[in-house]
Design a protein that fits this description.
The protein is of the alpha/beta class. The protein contains 13 helices and 18 strands.
Length: 469
């Protein structure tokens, strides 16, 4: 990440760096090491050089009390900046330039923090436990460092999410707020590593996605669709990316894709392609999407239900025994029966044929990927909980089976992949999928021919998408 920056920054005694979300202090240590080498001629005396770097150039804001001590140990070689074993003799307090001051959430009328969106029920603390009210997004720089400051570079790995108090394990993104706050401070350069889910928006990210994709100061993205290639042993749905934002340099973005231990040929291109409202992470996919969009067809999204298609949540369970007037219910981990009176949405489709498909896709991050679960025909008088969505309605079982033949093609699931950066499969991910004539079945060969795909484009699709039997 430091290599993205102009290296002359490390040869200037005036460059000022900030890690606004320091955890272990590694970023600050590596910055200090580069400055130590870069300033050797300007400040020949080693101790003077160290003192200058530590007091004038390297700053950090920790995430918690614990990470503050860890970061100081990494940067100053002791958890107290003025300690006996500190590498610098210039500080007169324990914090140095690596600070943490516990702050509080500011609850609004909806019991959410107005700064970070945290749930009052989850984070209102009456004890000594961490509140996770991160100073960088709850206070101004002047409040944190007790003086006005400007930074040339802001760099870090912010916290990714925070519990929103929803059902089950529910979390909302928070890394977007760190990026937004960093831009407000207006550094010359911003470099952060974050989940890649923002490419397509989603929970709490739609406005952030729109702002990022229209910001032509975003000049370099290194994309890891499989997060474990960046963070070994870690699975982050949708992968991760790190980027360079350059305040004074506008233009196209250079995209690097890291996959299977290799870095693809970088391509300089706009963050938004014609006909798209999301970022297309794969350079090889651009020509394919352009060919599909050129047909100007309606999309399958128009026939895809919303989440919770019949008004029944994921944790809803029907009755085991059938009663007169009941409907068959496809629910989490099985089937049951439910009274039609409990159906509050899409009642007009209950008596029609439809195609059901699990809303959560495969949990695997590896490629080739199935993208979707296996679809099945929904007979009339069937409904589902939020575990499934449906495509329809259709007039016959045969039409549904032809839809399923389309879903099973690698071509169709490839177009879904371009918008799908999490396990969740909602109506939004079908917006690149053209609606077909379902009076007959479909195969990949038919679709490749229809959209005039060449052998390289076909090979890329088939390298990314697993066959569905």
């Amino acid at each position: 990440m430091l290599d993205l920056l102009p290296q002359e920054l490390f040869r200037s005694s005036k460059t000022r760096f900030l890690d606004p979300c320091s955890k272990s202090g590694v970023f600050l240590r590596e910055i200090a090491k580069r400055l130590l080498a870069g300033l050797e001629e300007q400040i020949p005396d080693l101790q003077q050089r160290i003192d200058h770097i530590m007091t004038k150039q390297v700053f950090g804001i920790a995430c918690t009390d614990l990470t503050a001590e860890m970061s100081r140990r990494t940067l100053y070689c002791t958890k107290q900046a003025n300690g006996e074993y500190s590498v610098t003799t210039a500080f007169h307090d324990v914090h140095g330039n690596l600070v943490y001051e516990r702050c509080q959430h500011s609850w609004n009328a909806q019991d959410r923090c107005e700064h970070c969106g945290a749930s009052k029920g989850e984070y209102l603390r009456a004890d000594a436990r961490e509140t996770y009210a991160y100073p960088f997004i709850h206070k101004s720089i002047k409040e944190i460092f007790h003086k006005a400051m400007q930074f040339d570079v802001i760099i870090g790995n912010p916290p990714y999410q925070i519990s929103d108090g929803g059902f089950g394990i529910s979390a909302m993104p928070i890394y977007d707020r760190f990026i937004t706050q960093a831009k407000k401070i207006n550094p010359r350069y911003l470099v952060m590593i974050v989940p890649a889910r923002w490419y397509a928006g989603g929970k709490g990210l739609d406005e952030f996605r729109d702002e990022m994709l229209h910001d032509n100061r975003l000049r370099i993205i290194h994309d890891y669709p499989q997060a474990y290639e960046c963070f070994p042993g870690v699975q982050i749905k949708g992968g991760v990316c790190y980027f360079l934002w350059d305040r004074d340099n506008r233009g196209n973005c250079m995209i690097y894709t890291h996959q299977n231990g290799e870095v693809g040929k970088p391509v300089s291109r706009p963050l938004l392609e014609k006909g798209s409202d999301v970022f297309i992470r794969y350079n090889e996919a651009i020509s394919i999407l352009h060919k599909v969009v050129s047909f100007n067809e309606s999309t399958l999204a128009d026939k895809v239900s919303s989440r919770q298609p019949f008004g029944l949540s994921t944790n809803f369970h029907g009755e085991k025994e059938y009663h007169s007037g009941y409907l068959r219910l496809y629910e989490n981990q099985g089937e049951s029966f439910v009274s039609e009176k409990l159906i509050t949405k899409n009642r007009q489709d209950v008596k029609s044929y439809k195609v059901y498909i699990a809303r959560a896709g495969s949990g695997s991050d590896s490629f080739p990927h199935p993208i979707l679960g296996v679809p099945f025909v929904g007979e009339p008088n069937t409904v589902s909980s939020e575990t499934y969505i449906y495509i329809g309605p259709f007039v016959s079982k045969e039409e549904c089976e032809n839809v399923i033949s389309y879903i099973k093609t690698r071509f169709m699931r490839f177009l879904i992949m371009l918008r799908k950066v999490t396990q969740s499969t909602t109506r939004e991910v079908y917006k690149f999928v053209p609606l077909q004539d379902f009076s007959h079945p479909w195969t990949d060969e038919m679709l490749y021919k229809k959209y005039n795909l060449d052998k390289d484009e076909i090979a890329f699709i088939e390298s990314m998408i697993r066959p569905m039997e």
